[in-house]
Every structure is written in structure tokens, then in C-alpha cells.
């Protein structure tokens, strides 16, 4: 399977799909969420986005469906071009797909040795290899501290600098060998996951893209339209939580003359939705998934 979607039923319920509605899946991937949305549509339509060219092979052959092979940060431009604004709902599943993880040459997995790439869109010019071999240690340290939330960020940067003086870091195995001595074996997988996360976020400019998506949602959703976002780490989840609370990713509360919060959107679920025990067992990669839902005011 290309990818088993996380929180499938919960996200569909969150969107409250109407048969005649227009919906957007900004992270098409293997098409799991998209197929389920299509099953609930009648005369409505679904527009999907995915920047990974591998996802194109999963396109749905249905006149009600249209796939845009671009980053979702360009959502508003394509929706206007397709005369789809306003829409009834937007779904974003921010995790990397099982296909990306299991394809060793993409460099997303800590389990397989392959080129240290990490580009979701292989048209991008800068890969993780370029960052590891060309960035100054101080810049690398900031990267691992901010995007990996790693306390040993400076030590990691120095270890990478030492390793690349011996030979260029070309593979995931090279990176692992350079830093794996820094933690006990029982903490290694989590540590490496955070190192890879930091690099992936930087390579794909993920947090800026997410901010643009959230901001654009206010311009493309109908009043009462819903935005459902599944995130997988605290940096993303914090941005989404702030946005649903305050209308901006910083969480800055703005009020009108009468003291009412001006946000343009509000959280539908006050408590984050997580996978149940059964889903966590059947689909271990869903365990860190967190779903938040907002309604446009």
C-alpha cells in the first residue's frame, strides 16, 4: 500500500462532507483520504494537491476530481484558476507517506541506507546533503535546536563538521554514523527521527508552507466551511492550535472595539483528536497523529 491514511473516519466526520460540496485535499499522497471523500460526494468535486511527482500515479479517474502537482502553498492561486472558490472544506495530512519512508533513495527513513535527500519535491535545488556538507556549524546548530527541538544541537553540529572533514556525507548511513554515538541505544531511534525531522522541515520549507496554507484558508473557505489538519509533531500542532484560537500561527489575540476576539475561524474540537488503541496497533505510523478542526466564521 502506498500509504494507509491516519484518522480517516475522524477527518471525514470533521469535514462533514456534503454530496454537492467542493473540497480540497492538500496532501493527496496515495489518495486514501481523497477516495473516502469521493465516496461521500454526489455532484460535488474534489481538488487535490501534492508536490511529489510519485503521487501523480495514484490520481483518481473521475471527472469530479482534479490533481495539482504542486505544493499546497499555492492553493489559493490554483483554486481561483479552477473557479473553485469558495470551498466547503480543506483537509491537510501533514505527515510523510509510507511510500516516501519506504523508498530508500528518497532518504526519509532512518531504517534504510540511501542518498540523504529528503526532498518531497525533487525539483527543489537544495537537498539535505547540501545542508549537511555546506552549512556552517552554528547554522546547523540553530537548525537542530529549532526544527528538531534537540538539546544537543551544538554537539550534533560539531559531530557533523568532524565527520565531513574526513569524507562528504552522502547517505543516511553517513549521517547516522556521525551522530549515533551521542545517545544510548534505547534512545537512538527517537533521536535520529528528530535529526531527520529538522533537516526535512528545512529542505521542504514546511513550516512556512503550513503558515501560508492556514492563512489562505480564510480566503477560500465558505462561512461555516471546515479546515481539518492532521499534524505529527509539536511545531506543526502548535501553529494549528494557535491559528484556530487566534487566527494567526503566533497565537496573538486581536480584539475589536467591544473586546471580542477577531480571528475569522474557531476550533470545532477543544480537545485534540488522537488515534484510538486499535488504529495505533494496526497502523503504528499513525500513533503521533493529531487532528484539529476549525470552522470559518
SSE order and pairing:
Blueprint (H helix, E strand, L loop, with lengths): L7 H8 L6 E4 L6 H9 L4 E5 L15 E4 L6 H7 L5 E7 L4 H5 L25 H7 L2 H10 L6 H14 L5 H8 L8 H17 L1 H15 E11 L2 H13 L18 E3 L9 H6 L7 E7 L1
Parallel strand pairs: 1-2, 1-4, 2-3, 4-5
Antiparallel strand pairs: 5-7, 6-7
Helix pairs in contact: 6-7, 6-9, 7-8, 10-11
Structure, explained:
This protein is an alpha/beta fold and 297 residues long. It has two domains: 8-98 and 206-296, Vaccinia Virus protein VP39 (Rossmann fold); 104-204, DNA polymerase, domain 1. The chain is 40% helix and 14% strand. It contains twelve helices and seven strands. The protein has helices at 8-15, 32-40, 75-81, 98-102, 128-134, 137-146, 153-166, 172-179, 188-204, 206-220, 234-246, 277-282; strands at residues 22-25, 45-49, 65-68, 87-93, 221-231, 265-267, 290-296. It has a seven-stranded mixed β-sheet with strand order 3-2-1-4-5-7-6, with helices on both faces. Helix 2 (32-40) links the parallel strand 1 and strand 2 (45-49). Helix 6 (137-146) packs across helix 7 and helix 10 (206-220) packs parallel to helix 11. The mean pLDDT is 95.
Amino acid at each position: 500500500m502506498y500509504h494507509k491514511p491516519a484518522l480517516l473516519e475522524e477527518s471525514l466526520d470533521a469535514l462533514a462532507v456534503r454530496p454537492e460540496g467542493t473540497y480540497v485535499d492538500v496532501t493527496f499522497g496515495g489518495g486514501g483520504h481523497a477516495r473516502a471523500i469521493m465516496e461521500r460526494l454526489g455532484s460535488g468535486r474534489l481538488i487535490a494537491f501534492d508536490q511529489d511527482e510519485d503521487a501523480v500515479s495514484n490520481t483518481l479517474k473521475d471527472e469530479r476530481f482534479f490533481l495539482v502537482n504542486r505544493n499546497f502553498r499555492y492553493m489559493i492561486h490554483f483554486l481561483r484558476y479552477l473557479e473553485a472558490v469558495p470551498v466547503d472544506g480543506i483537509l491537510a495530512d501533514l505527515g510523510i507517506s509510507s511510500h516516501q519512508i519506504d523508498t530508500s533513495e528518497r532518504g526519509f527513513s532512518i531504517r534504510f541506507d540511501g542518498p540523504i535527500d529528503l526532498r518531497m519535491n525533487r525539483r527543489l535545488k537544495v537537498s539535505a546533503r547540501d545542508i549537511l556538507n555546506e552549512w556552517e556549524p552554528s547554522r546547523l546548530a540553530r537548525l537542530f535546536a529549532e526544527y528538531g527541538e534537540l538539546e544537543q544541537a551544538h554537539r550534533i553540529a560539531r559531530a557533523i563538521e568532524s565527520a565531513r572533514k574526513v569524507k562528504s556525507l552522502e547517505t543516511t548511513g553517513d549521517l547516522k554514523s556521525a551522530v549515533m554515538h551521542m545517545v544510548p541505544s534505547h534512545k537512538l531511534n527517537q533521536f535520529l527521527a528528530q535529526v531527520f525531522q529538522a533537516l526535512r522541515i528545512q529542505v521542504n520549507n514546511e513550516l512556512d508552507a503550513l503558515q501560508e496554507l492556514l492563512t489562505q484558508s480564510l480566503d477560500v473557505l465558505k462561512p461555516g466551511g471546515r479546515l481539518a489538519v492532521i499534524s505529527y509533531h509539536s511545531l506543526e500542532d502548535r501553529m494549528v492550535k494557535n491559528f484556530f484560537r487566534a487566527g494567526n500561527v503566533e497565537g496573538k489575540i486581536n480584539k475589536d472595539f467591544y473586546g471580542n476576539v477577531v480571528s475569522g475561524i474557531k476550533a470545532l474540537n477543544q480537545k485534540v483528536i488522537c488515534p484510538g488503541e486499535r488504529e495505533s496497533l494496526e497502523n503504528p505510523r499513525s500513533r503521533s497523529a493529531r487532528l484539529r478542526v476549525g470552522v470559518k466564521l
